[in-house]
Specification:
Elements lengths: L2 H12 L9 H14 L7 H18 L2 E2 L10 E5 L5 E2 L2 E6 L14 H9 L1 H14 L9 E4 L7 E6 L9 H21 L3 E4 L11 H18 L4 E6 L2 H11 L1
Parallel strand pairs: 1-3, 2-8, 4-6, 4-7, 7-8
Antiparallel strand pairs: 5-6
């Protein structure tokens, strides 16, 4: 199948009565929206085969970055600006919401939406199964490990960061530190040795970027003193976060 044929096939599978757009860009936008709003549930093997081939092609086209090709800013500590869904490491961290099944807003720009989009529908299904077994929303500051499916990393660590409404409190700071600590602890318990953190809670959860970065670095460095072989990447996307982390790490 060509890329255009893959897109048309996947759109038709999710919305048989929809009108297929003419351009591939509009096809991809429609497909992503359909995937974003889709409730967890079984899909056919044919759908998964086409979806997986398409997503892996999209990620490869963006360019995959391997942690082995990065230069640390200090021992086992890295700063990298880029798309976390293109990073090859043991695990990447997803800033999830308490429902843990991804962002349902069509084509939203949050990292939760992007990770679920490019991992594939299997990720939402796994998360939904885990949450059904748990029976209650995911508490802030904990961590869960899932497969990464079509992403180049091996696993995804999901954590719910604090939502800052009004002024920043000491509880918010403690909860954010717990997010980093929980992910690191679970990674170590699972035998992982290289994980990448996004900027947890600094987007739609409104945690101040500079304070969040300081908490992230302090928590990771404290953990690495007890686990010196753990490699950690601070992944940033925005230029302002890159400058903040450069200053904190300096």
């Amino acid at each position: 199948m060509t890329r255009s044929e893959q897109l048309a096939f996947l759109i038709h599978a999710l919305a048989p009565d929809s009108c297929i757009p003419a351009s591939d860009a509009e096809k991809w936008r429609l497909l992503r929206a359909l995937v974003n709003v889709r409730e967890p549930g079984a899909v056919s093997e044919a759908f998964l085969a086409v979806q997986d081939a398409f997503l892996q092609g999209e990620i490869a086209a963006k360019g995959i970055t391997d942690i082995e090709d990065l230069q640390p800013v200090r021992d086992n500590l890295y700063l990298w600006q880029g798309d976390i869904t293109t990073l090859r490491a043991d695990a990447i961290v997803n800033a999830a919401n308490s429902g843990m099944t991804g962002c349902y807003c069509p084509n939203h720009g949050c990292i939760d939406n992007v990770i679920h989009t490019f991992a594939g529908v299997q990720l939402r299904n796994e998360c939904a199964q885990r949450m059904q077994q748990q029976g209650y929303p995911e508490p802030t500051g904990q961590a869960k490990l899932t497969a990464a499916y079509n992403l180049p990393c091996r696993y995804i660590l999901h954590t719910v960061g604090p939502i800052v409404q009004g002024g920043l409190t000491e509880r918010h700071k403690a909860e954010l530190a717990n997010c980093y600590r929980s992910c690191l602890t679970l990674a170590a318990e699972t035998g992982l040795s290289a994980i990448a953190f996004c900027c947890i809670s600094t987007g739609v959860f409104h945690f101040p970027n500079a304070i969040a970065a300081q908490i992230a670095v302090d928590t990771v460095e404290a953990f690495q003193r007890e686990h010196p072989s753990m490699r950690v990447i601070f992944n940033v996307f925005l230029n302002k976060d890159l400058e903040i982390y450069r200053e904190v790490l300096r």
